[in-house]
Write a structure and sequence with these properties.
alpha+beta; 2 domains; six-stranded mixed β-sheet; five-stranded mixed β-sheet; 6 helices
Length: about 425
């Protein structure tokens, strides 16, 4: 029975796994937006560039942080350029597609370099229901042309990264009168998505479960938070390069909000208006920066590790002899379960490959091994000396998870399942 897992970080190779989480960097130094006097209708000014907390979410478990203006929020992931849009109420990080890299940079310019496709959003103008990213007709769900196109693009380009991406909510607000008042009249954007019918997700535990893949489109509110003014030309925000692209927010009975070619948030001519799409995906908050500074010339290079590195001090007795938690090649590392004895240990490297490391099991039930020159991940299985009931097994598993004691210091993490 698998009882606990963890990671020992090598002095020479810890940075990529431990040091810089994208979420931590994005949220560092954020300013509450209610302390500013943003004119959302007119768009971002030259002084607005920064990372802000949406005031509505300040006291939430995961406040929403968003970029505004012209920040350095560029990254390369899965072979594409992206920009960090915002964090989410679930603690993930939303990215917007921004074209193909030029070498190791994201400096490509010109029309259509940062948009995908050129298609109608909807299949028909006959009814307001066609504003739905997934709409119901004759008691059946139907995908919009925009969703069909993005799903096909995802299958062709991102399917190998599916296990690394986070499921989240992509908001398809169809109450067009309220949308128009909030965006077009008041200039009061909100990332709140109050209705389950609008909460596009893969998993029904967090939304309506109508997505096939964790990818959809930007909202008019996200465009406005980013710096777009309503029907006002503005060059002081990162989401525009003069390209046109859809949002998934309905503006009127038969129109959608979109980013127009005049650097402004506006409305389409009709639901079947053909223009570009920019994919929005979400990374988990374990996404890690391997290099770069976020500029277009030196974008962040991102990996999503298979393991998190959050402290388990509440679950472990920790020897603080090595306070930085890093191990040198040749260090002897000892794992001691609180109860029972170790039956076996499986070790992995950063690529999730099983590696041949001998862990010598002592008479006290502990296990010792020699640290190599790379990060070592492990799964520990507690030996069962006698047959046990299900309750006994569960109790032993919980007890075993309660501590990992390492002689020379420790950095422990649970494996992502």
């Amino acid at each position: 029975m698998l009882c606990f897992s963890g990671v020992f970080l090598s002095e020479g190779n810890a940075h990529a796994v431990k040091d810089v989480l994208l979420y931590d960097l994005v949220t560092d130094g954020a300013v509450l937006d209610s302390t500013k006097s943003f004119d959302f209708l007119s768009g971002a000014s030259a002084d607005d560039t920064g990372i802000y907390i949406e005031a509505r979410t300040e006291d939430d478990e995961f406040p929403v942080y968003y970029y505004r203006g012209l920040p350095n929020n560029n990254l390369i992931y899965a072979g594409f350029c992206w920009q960090v849009l915002r964090t989410t109420e679930l603690g993930n990080i939303k990215l917007i597609y921004n074209g193909l890299p030029s070498g190791e940079t994201c400096v490509a310019t010109g029309n259509d370099t940062n948009t995908l496709l050129d298609i109608p959003y909807a299949a028909s103008n006959d009814d307001r229901i066609y504003g739905g990213y997934v709409y119901e007709l004759d008691s059946e769900d139907h995908d919009s042309p925009a969703k069909e196109a993005l799903d096909e693009w995802f299958e062709d380009n991102m399917i190998d990264y599916l296990d690394e991406l986070a499921d989240d909510v992509w908001c398809n607000r169809l109450d067009w009168e309220e949308n128009h008042n909030r965006i077009g009249t008041l200039g009061a954007p909100s990332n709140e998505c109050p209705d389950l019918s609008a909460q596009m997700s893969v998993d029904t535990e967090i939304g309506n479960g109508k997505l096939k893949y964790p990818v959809a489109m930007i909202t008019a509110d996200e465009l406005m938070f980013g710096g777009a003014g309503y029907n006002v030309e503005n060059h002081n925000y990162y989401l525009t390069t003069g390209n046109k692209f859809h949002s998934m927010t309905q503006q009127s009975e038969k129109k959608m909000f979109y980013q127009n070619s005049k650097y402004a948030l506006n409305r389409t001519g009709n639901l079947t208006y053909a223009t570009g799409i920019r994919a929005i995906i979400a990374l988990p908050n374990t996404a890690t920066i391997k290099g770069g500074n976020g500029s277009k010339n030196d974008p962040w290079r991102i990996v999503v590790p298979k393991y998190t590195v959050d402290s388990l001090t509440d679950l472990a007795d920790v020897d603080s002899a090595a306070p930085d938690g890093l191990f040198a090649e040749g260090d002897v590392v000892k794992i001691v379960p609180k109860e029972g004895r170790i039956g076996s240990v499986v070790f992995y490297n950063d690529d999730d490959e099983v590696v041949d490391i001998t862990c010598t099991i002592a008479s006290d039930g502990s296990c010792s091994f020699v640290m190599p020159d790379y990060n070592v991940y492990f799964d520990v299985i507690i030996a069962q000396n006698n047959p046990a009931t299900m309750d006994d097994s569960m109790g032993q598993m919980i007890s075993a998870m309660a501590a990992v004691l390492v002689l020379l210091g420790i950095s422990v993490a649970t494996r992502r399942r």
